[in-house]
Structure of Protein kinase domain-containing protein:
Amino acid sequence: MEKTKICMGCFEELPDDATVCSICGFDNKTIKREVQKWCQGAVIEKRWLLGCRFSQSDTYTIWRAWDSVLEIKCFLLVLNDDSDMALWDIAVLSKENDIDFKILSAGIVLDRKVLCISADRTDIKEDELCIKENVWGEKDIISHIDNGNTDKNDILPADTLLNDRYQILGIVGIGGFGITYLAKDINLLRNVAVKEYFPKQWVQREQNYVSIRHSGMVEPFKYGLKSFVSEIKMTAKFIHTENIVTVTDAFFENDTAYMVMEYIQGESIGRELRKRKNKLYDTQEIKEIFVPVLKALSNMHERKMIHCDISPANIIRKKNGEIVLIDMGAAKYIYDKKMTFTASFLKPDYAAPEQYQTAKSGKAGNEGTWTDIYAVGATMYHCLTLEKAPDVIKRLESGTDKIKVEHRFKLRDRKKWIKLACDCMELDRTKRIQESYTVLERIDELS
């Protein structure tokens, strides 16, 4: 099979026999291999491969680039040597309503002030991008966060500076394989969430460094680190997708890896459930939660990826009401038959039967879009009844697929919603709803 030809000016696919790119106009016969600063073909800080120059002004130059860490196409805005403009004073806007620009990161690169910018389209023209003064403000920065009873030996102390730009403010959460911090991006004056790969069962903290406990844990640590890097790259594919958390940067430091994401001020549906006590969600609230989740999953499934860890804890409601799906730690490509790192660490109340089979056999099995559908159904059931769905193992052992639902949850239109949740939780994956858009259609019929 022939390799796909890629334009080295904008990193888009080239037609079979073409050398001049129709998008950026770069002639791929003239590729220069000079090793110097800021020229086409140069690799900057072992991370960015420069394409062709996109635009230039008296203040800055914008390069097309390939980010080898996030594995995405991007633009690098490089301020001129004599520019005294602060990076947080720059905004990147579209002159066209259908283009979405996001500033991912900022810093000093080769003695220049640089912004890394992502656009949801790479075929844009110079006159479609507008650079102007921004309106960042200290009022948007949270100065601290209460760490409660967190084990101080595990966490990085407040004010720790990571990658010369992310100042730790406190802890957002701790999981089995990572610690998520609230941090201040001092170059852009905004809050970010920084997730550190820290598998507590294998490592310990020595000052700021992550140290493996003993030699027998080296290989598991390395395998987990590889999976964490995979999570970063998978999440980065959805920078411009609504209802999926946005990753903005990644780096290695302290003998581990870090992922930088948008900081979401809000609350998980899991925490909401714990607070509600006996107050059921009404069906309109259910719709407001699950339509965005299913749309996010549709975007993932279209790219042949499955989330594999849908649960109330991984669905966040922002303060403005927007629903966001987080945590790609267990995500995988549908056709990837390698054993996934998180297969043995399933959420028992939401995982599908085929995930248990994979965990038991040690080999990737029959996971697919239907696997996410099961978890959606189990999460929906929990929201509808305030009770967790029946245990998969017990259902398999009893030999019955039917879920008994208390009569008080079958009133009016709620009965149809529970029927939908149960249809999503069929034990036999071939009988289960297969696609997220089918669930969306069913929801539309219930409205």
Summary: The mean pLDDT is 86. The radius of gyration is 24 Å. Residues 291 and 440 are 7 Å apart (CA to CA).
